Sequence to fold (112 residues):
Amino acid sequence: MDNFNFTVTDSAAFRIGEIIATQSLGKDYFFRLTVEGGGCSGFQYKMDMDNKLADDDIVIEKNNTKTVIDSVSAQFLSGSTLDYESSLGGSILKVQNPNAVSSCGCGISFSA
Fold:
């Protein structure tokens, strides 16, 4: 996809690497971020570990990890950042999406 820009922070890449190692997944596994219809705001983020690439997938490599976004989801994610936040209340891989007009309190769903 032309002009697609997506950032994975160092902390997010480190956490993805930890998850893959903790779950004893092989080196061929990666983090897949997808945008789907649904959620309380219209769209929602789906986050999975996967090991199958599609022809139109976009691969972002950071610190020996891969984050993969399909071409349809990329339309909603251009300019976004994947970050890992940890606090007393818990920890989360979170998408900071400038394309989201609004989002729910949990940060998992948004409207565009």
